[in-house]
């Protein structure tokens, strides 16, 4: 018997690539499935001129999750870094497919490398994490706000005068646009967002949905992002806080590198935690608590009071 599964997706080229890729994987795993895609406009899509840290949690996910809860769609395909760490009752992330490149891509005008920028460089980004790390390395730099989908930001870069900007390598790879980047930034120099490059395939928390979606899960990707998001949740972070994290696996050992910073980059606290990859959640929580005890709690208190 044929079944129909409806995937809710944002309308950007990247979101549709991701949803179509998941749809094709599901058709291959379940030949009886008919998979359709329904475009849903989120609050973050509607508020293109607003800074991400002013929109609040779930800027690119809430309306899609509402569709899951009311039954108008069956599956959500999220960029994991957009998904709040607080789970919604009745929903479950059933799968994290194998991760794409988690690094940040740097676009330097005239091919200038990030390490070779002048001290008074103009850097365009809408992400507090990228701004904080840039200002930590270039305290005299100017950060210009930049938002929009991949194509919009590439156009704004071509038309602008800034020294450079960032995009996620994963999105560029998925859209076959990576030829235009200047360099892929080493995470030792520039740490990516928790979950960057990974997808979250979410559905209702029921047996039928789980049976259909869990076949797309990639164990090492799940372990890596569980550690990163446990770190993020321990710091109670989101788009309003400059937090970065990346987990790597070597054999059975998972090493998590994480940081928290002031928005102006004046203070940046960074550390690592390693352990057995089966303990990914615990590793993330331990590193988060250690950064809080090392001064991260004071950074977060300052950020909260600034937004009060």
Enumerate the spans where pLDDT stays under 50 for 5 or more consecutive residues: none
Q: Write down the secondary-structure element order.
A: EHEHHHEEEEHEHEHEEHHEEEH
Determine the mean pLDDT. Answer: 94
CATH architecture classification of the largest domain = 3-Layer(aba) Sandwich
Largest sheet: 5 strands, mixed
Rounded to the nearest angstrom, the distance between the terminal CA atoms is 55 Å
Q: What would you call the shape?
A: globular
Structural class: alpha/beta
The CATH topology of the largest domain: D-Maltodextrin-Binding Protein, domain 2
Q: What proportion strand?
A: 15-25%
Number of strands: 13
Count of runs of 4 or more consecutive helical residues: 10
Helix proportion of residues, in percent?
Answer: 25-40%
So what's the CATH class of the largest domain? Alpha Beta
> Within the largest sheet, what's the order of strands?
2-1-3-10-4
- Number of domains in the coordinates? 3
Q: Please identify which CATH superfamily of the largest domain we are dealing with.
A: Periplasmic binding protein-like II
Radius of gyration from the CA trace?
Answer: 19 Å
């Amino acid at each position: 018997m044929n079944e129909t599964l409806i995937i809710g997706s944002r309308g950007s080229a990247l979101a549709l690539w991701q949803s179509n890729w998941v749809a094709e994987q599901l058709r291959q795993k379940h030949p009886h499935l008919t998979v359709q895609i329904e475009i849903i406009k989120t609050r973050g899509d509607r508020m293109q001129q607003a800074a991400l840290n002013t929109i609040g949690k779930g800027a690119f996910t809430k309306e899609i999750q509402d569709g899951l809860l009311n039954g108008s769609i069956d599956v959500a395909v999220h960029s994991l870094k957009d998904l709040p760490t607080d789970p919604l009752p009745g929903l479950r992330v059933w799968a994290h497919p194998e991760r794409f490149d988690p690094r940040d891509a740097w676009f330097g005008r005239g091919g200038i490398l990030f390490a070779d920028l002048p001290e008074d460089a103009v850097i365009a980004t809408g992400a507090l994490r990228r701004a904080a790390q840039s200002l930590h390395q270039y305290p005299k730099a100017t950060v210009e706000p930049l938002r929009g989908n991949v194509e919009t930001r590439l156009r704004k870069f071509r038309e602008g005068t800034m020294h450079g900007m960032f995009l996620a390598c994963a999105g560029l790879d998925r859209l076959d646009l990576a030829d235009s980047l200047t360099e892929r930034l080493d995470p030792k120099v520039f740490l990516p967002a928790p979950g960057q490059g990974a997808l979250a395939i979410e559905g209702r928390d029921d047996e039928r949905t789980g049976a259909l979606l869990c076949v797309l899960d990639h164990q090492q990707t799940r372990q890596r992002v569980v550690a990163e998001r446990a770190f993020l949740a321990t710091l109670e972070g989101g788009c309003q806080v400059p937090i970065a994290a990346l987990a790597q696996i070597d054999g059975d050992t998972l090493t998590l590198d994480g940081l928290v910073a002031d928005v102006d980059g004046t203070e940046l606290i960074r550390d690592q935690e390693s352990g057995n990859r089966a303990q990914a959640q615990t590793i993330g929580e331990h590193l988060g608590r250690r950064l809080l005890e090392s001064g991260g709690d004071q950074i977060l208190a300052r950020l909260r009071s600034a937004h009060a």
